[in-house]
C-alpha cells in the first residue's frame, strides 16, 4: 500500500490471498478502510485495514471461493459526492462476474447475496464486464449495473424498498454486433464500449444508437493476459481463465467524472465527450453548416443525444441555443455569398443558392424570427440578384403551408415584381390567397391579378381586404355574359371563369370563404343576402335597352343549367326558419319559371332539369314554395310533343327523371301513357306499365324500342326467375313471349335458345314447327342443341334425336362446311338416319366419318378414295383444256392449279388419317386392302401428271406419293411394299428408273435407323459401365475406423491375442464386435438369409447421447457400404497386426433408398424405352420411316451430348 501524496510505502500485505496466484483486481469501496481483491484462482477476498497504536494491520476474509466458479471481474458500487446520502450506500454493494454468472452481494451490515444472474450462451473467450452508474428515472436516482459477456449488454436496476429489502430489476438489453472487451459509463445516458478489434463505440442507452465509432489501433492498448495466465507464479490457472485472459484489459481502462483513460504501451489517452458548443464549433470549422444547424436545433428541441454542458431549465436552454443558432445563420449566409461562383453558367449559381437559402429560411421560421428573416438576412442576400430571387421563391412553400402569413411591404412589393418578371403567376396566386392582405397595396395587387387573370387571388383580395363580395361577381359576369348572349361558344378560359363563378356563388351562399377558409361568422348572413340581391337584379349596372331582364340568372342558366340548379338546391337545404331566406327562395323560383318557360333559347333538357329541381323541392315535407300546377302540364305537353323529333332521348330522360321524383303524380296516367306512346317514349310506358303490374305490355315496349331490344332477354329471364311476381303475372308474360317468339329468334337466336331451354322446354317442338324460314330454323337449332355447361347442361328436350337429325338435314342444304364439326360434337343423332341424310346430299367427308364411326372402315375408305380420285382427275385433266395464252389466262390457270392442289392435299390428309388410326385395329390383309389401293392411285396419277401436267404439279404429286409411302411403312413391311411396286405392270417391264426415288428413300430410312440403333446401343453400354464402375468403387472403398475399440462394450477389438473373433466396420467409422452387435439386435432382413444385414448401433439410435435423426442423416450421406470383416489372430509369435479377410459388402434399407434417389438425379430419359419404341411394331413387324433427302449421306452422324459426370 502506497501513499500517493508523498510516494511512501505504507505497508506490505503478505497473507491477503493464497500463495501461487496472481492478483487480478483490487478496488476500494466507499469506506476507505474496506477494499476487495480478486486473484487468478477465481477467489474474491475482503480486505479490512486498521491502525491501532500506530500499527497498521489488515484482515482478509474470503467472500467467494474459486472452487465454486472462477470470478474474473469485480466492481464495487462507488457513490459520487452528490449521492453520498443515498440509502443504498449503507449496503456497500459489490458486483462479481464469474465465467458463468453475475452475483450482486452486500458487504454491510452483514454479508448477503442479493442477486444471481446466469449468462446466456456466448463465446468462451468473451471477457465479462461490469460497470455501475447512478441513473435518474421517474424523479428518483438509483444505481444501474451494466454487464456483458459477448455482444449483449444487460442492465440491472437496483433499488431499496421501504422495508429494507434490495430489489434488482432487469431492464432492456442492448444488442451489438461485436465482441465487447471493455464497458464504461461516461454519463447516465451514454456508454463507451471497446470491441475485440479495438474499435471504440459511443452508445446512447435510451435509443440504443451508436453515436460515434473511433479506431484505437494507434493507442496500442495494454492487455492483462500475463496476469490472467499467472505466468509469474508458474501459470497455475484454468484453461477457461487463460482463454478469457487473451482479451482482458481491465487494468488498462479507468473512468471517472466523465473521462475515460486508456493505457497504451507508450502513452495514456484520455477520452471525453465534447460539450454541445464544441460539437457545433467542430462542424463549423469543417464548414458543415447544414449539419451544424441541424445539431443545434436538436439541442434546442431536447432530442440530441449525449449532451454535455447545457444546463438550466428548458426555457433557458432554448434561449441559449437560439442565440447560437442566430449566429450560425449569419455566418452561413456570409459563407454562402463568399463561396458563390463568380463565373460560369447561371444554372450553377442558382443551384448553389437553392441548396442553402431554403435552409436559412426554414431555421429562421423555426426560431420564430421573422424579423431576422425579412430585415438582416434579406438585406444581406439582396446584394446578389440570383440569391434574392431564390429567397423570394423559397417563401412560397411556407406561405402555402400557412407557416408564414405576414410579409412586410418591401418584401411583398419585391415578390410581386419577381413573379411578374419571371411569369410564374400561378405561384403568385397561390401565395396571395394565403397572405394577410391588410397591409398590402390592394390597388397594385388587384391590377396585377386582373391583368394576369388571377381570379382566385382577385376574389380573395376583395373579400379579405375590403369585405366586398359583389365586385368579383360583376367582373366575372362582364366576361362570360357577352358570348353567352350572342350564342357564341365559350373559350377554355371563359369556361374556367364561369366554373369559378359558380363555385364562388356556392361558397358565399354556404358561408364558406373562397378559395379556402370560412367567412367571418358575423358576416355570413349579410354576404348571403348580398349575393341573392345581386342575382335577382332586374338589370345590370351598365345595362342597355336590348338587355333582357334578370341578366345574371339568365347567364348562369345558359352557362350550366344543371350545376346552377344544384347550387340553389344545396343552398335551399339550409333554409329552415329564416323568413328572409324563404322569400329569396320563392323569388328565385319565380324568376327561373319566368325566364325558362315558353323560351325557345333553352333546350328540353334544361327545361326538364328546372322542373325536376322544382319537383324535388315540392316533394320535401317542409316545403313552402308555391308553383302553378298548370306549368307542369305545359312542360308535359312540351316534352311529349310528337311533331318534334329533335332530342328525342334527351326529352324522354328528362320526363323519366320527373316521374322518379314524383313531380307529376297528380296527372292522369291514361293521358300521360297516351302522350308517351304517341311520342314513342317507351321507357315512360314501361314505368307506367310496371307501376300497374302490366308486365306483358312491357315486352311490347322493349320490342318497339330500337335502342333497348337486346335487353328484353334479361328482363324476361329476371321476371320469370325472381320472386315477388304472382303466377298469373308470369303466365301472361309467358303467353306474350310465345306470341313474339319468332321475332325474338330473329333478334338473337342464342339468347332465344337459352330462354326456350330454361323456360319453354315443353313448347320447344311447337316453336320449331312454327318457324317457316329454314335459315332462321337452322340458326335457332344450332344454338338450342349446342353442348352447354352449368345450369342448362342436364336439360333434355323432347324428341331430341329428331331435332339433331333435322339440324343435320338443314346443315346439308344450307351450310355444308359445318356438317363435320356438328357430327363430331353432337352425340344425340341416330347413326343410320344420319348416314342416309348425308348420303342423300352427297357429302362424302361426312359420310366417311359416319361410316368410320359405325366401324365400316372399308366403306369409309372407299368413299374418301373416290373423292380423292375425282380431285386428282380434275387436277390432271383440267390442265389439258385450252386456255388463252394471255397474261390473265395464265394467271387464272395458275390460281386454278393452286386451288386444285390444295383440295387434293386436304383429301389425301383425310384418307391417310383414316388409314392410320384404322390400321391399329386391323389385321395385315385388311391393312393392305386400305394402303395399297391408295398407293396405286397416287402412283397412277403420278404417271398421268408426268405425261400431261406441269413439272411443278408433278413434283407436288411425287411428294404426296412419298408421304403415302412414309405413312404406310409404319404398318406395312418394306418387302411387301417393294414387291407390290414391282408387280405393277408398268414397273414390271423394266422402267425401274421411275421408282428410283422411292427405293432411295427407303434406303435412307434404313441408314438413319441403323445409325440411330448403333449410337443408342453405344450410349447404353457406356452408361451401364459408368454406373457399375461408380457403384463398385463406392462399395469396395476401404474403411478407416475412428477408434480401435468396440462402441458397445468399449473394449479393444483384439480382446484376446489367441481368439478368433469377427468384427464389423461401418462406413460411418464405428467398429463393433459381431457378438455385441448381435446382442443389441441391430440386424435386419428375413431369417432365411444366410448373412443378415446390419445397421450401426450408435448412428441408428439415440443411445450415443446425440440426436438420432441428425446423426443418422449425417452418416448415411457419407458412404453407401458397410463392411463385414473377420479378424484371425495367430499365436503369440505371429505378427502383431491382424489379418482382415473381406467377406461381403451390402447396403441396408435406408442406404438402398438413398442410392436409388442418388441415381435418379443423374438419370436422363430411358434409352431402353427409346430402343423398345424404335423396335416395336404391330404383329412383330419392322417400323420404317422414310426420311427426306438431306439425310442421304453415308457419313450421317448423330450430335448427342455425353452423359453427366459425377464427382467423387
Features:
1208 residues, alpha+beta, five-stranded antiparallel β-sheet, four-stranded antiparallel β-sheet, flat, disordered C terminus, zinc, zinc-finger, zinc ion binding
Characterize the structure shown:
The chain has 1208 residues and is an alpha+beta fold. 49% of the residues lie in helices and 14% in strands. It is built from 44 helices and 28 strands. The strands form eight sheets. Strands 11, 12, 13, 14 and 15 form a five-stranded antiparallel β-sheet that branches. The chain has a four-stranded antiparallel β-sheet with strand order 3-4-5-6, with no helix packed on it. Helix 28 crosses helix 30, helix 36 packs parallel to helix 38 (951-968) and helix 37 packs antiparallel against helix 38. The longest helix is centred in the C-terminal third of the chain and has 40 residues, at 996-1035. The chain is flat, with a radius of gyration of 54 Å. The two termini are 70 Å apart. Residues 1102-1145, 1164-1168, 1174-1194 and 1196-1208 have low confidence and may be disordered.
Quick description:
By secondary structure, the chain is of the alpha+beta class. Helix content is 49%, strand content 14%. It starts with a strand and ends in a 33-residue tail after the last helix.
SSE layout:
Blueprint: E1 2-3, E2 8-9, E3 23-28, E4 34-39, E5 44-52, E6 55-64, E7 71-76, E8 93-98, E9 101-106, E10 112-118, E11 129-137, E12 140-148, E13 152-160, E14 166-170, E15 174-175, E16 180-187, E17 190-195, E18 199-204, E19 209-215, H1 225-228, H2 239-245, E20 253-256, E21 259-263, E22 268-272, H3 276-285, H4 289-301, H5 314-338, H6 346-354, H7 357-366, H8 370-381, H9 385-400, H10 409-422, H11 425-432, H12 442-451, H13 455-466, H14 471-486, H15 492-510, H16 524-535, H17 551-572, H18 579-596, H19 604-618, H20 630-639, H21 648-660, H22 669-678, H23 682-691, H24 695-704, H25 712-721, H26 727-739, H27 741-747, H28 749-759, H29 764-770, H30 774-785, H31 800-814, H32 819-825, H33 831-840, H34 844-854, H35 857-878, H36 887-919, H37 924-948, H38 951-968, H39 974-982, H40 996-1035, E23 1060-1066, E24 1071-1073, H41 1074-1079, E25 1083-1084, E26 1093-1094, H42 1108-1116, E27 1122-1128, E28 1139-1146, H43 1149-1161, H44 1167-1175
Antiparallel strand pairs: 1-2, 3-4, 4-5, 5-6, 7-8, 8-9, 9-10, 11-12, 12-13, 13-14, 13-15, 16-17, 17-18, 18-19, 20-21, 21-22, 23-24, 23-27, 25-26, 27-28
Protein name: Vacuolar protein sorting-associated protein 8 homolog
CHCR repeats: 755-916
Pfam families: Beta-prop_VPS8, TPR_Vps41, TPR_Vps8, zf_RING_Vps8
